[in-house]
């Protein structure tokens, strides 16, 4: 069963665009899916500001089409990748799932709207069982070194950028903001190992099955509950890799929050899931992947292209 559950996410074939209703209908006609994990969203904040319609089309239309085709095929269990971006600049930390939500860019707005769509879909038909997972900052790679992040173009996020500096693809890291009210003046985030994040999805699927009668549309944070500054992350990576990361200090990046980290009690209690790894393991596994695959999956891609 797990194989079928995960087929849409893991199988290279068939690969379809969720907006391609005919292709999606074909897949659902040829397989019986018990549940879907929906990761198929665009996620670059800056790009979403420049290309909002692309984000609304891909993220919203894709999700609506998926929900419609699922419903038509009697598949009404969904795990959706939401994001801590829905907390905006939180007034306090840790962020609990009940905090007020907001969006500061089109990408964030698609996450908020999809969360609302899911709540409405469940209200209209209680057969739907939906878990919304609010990811904090995913970092690291599979410990094997075979699976890791390979961003197209210059990375936007901190650790993919650090990784490319470490392998010599980029000259230095720009640290955005040194005057935040944090331990060293740099922004604080809740970094979570991608393997812990993956386990969180298995826990969510289990919850959809084991507590099916109690679940409606529920939301859970996936984070460690610990805040780490930019400079602490860089230091941890330097230790794990033995590489010096040259730094350039700059002003704050527009739209960045000061401190964001998760309250984890709800996921621990109800999903029986807790992050196992700390930043040492995240940096170790990230470096293992980066050193074995300095140019990602393509092997020899050039960032300047
Ligand atoms: C970002 C997005 C968030 C999205 C998440 C996906 C923004 C404003 N937020 O979160 O909506 O869900 O990625 O993973 O883009 N930093 C540097 N130099 C860099 C890059 C980052 O100093 O080159 C700092 C940032 O200022 C921040 C921290 O590193 O303090 C983490 O940044 P990042 O990895 O981009 O994640 P978020 O901004 O938390």
Automatic annotation (TrEMBL):
A GO BP entry: galactose metabolic process
A molecular function GO annotation: UDP-glucose 4-epimerase activity
EC number of the protein: 5.1.3.-
One Pfam family per UniProt: GDP_Man_Dehyd
Pathway(s) per entry: Carbohydrate metabolism; galactose metabolism
Named cofactor requirement(s): NAD(+)
This protein's record includes keyword ATP-binding: no
Family: Belongs to the NAD(P)-dependent epimerase/dehydratase family.
The protein, known as: UDP-glucose 4-epimerase
Record organism: Zea mays (Maize)
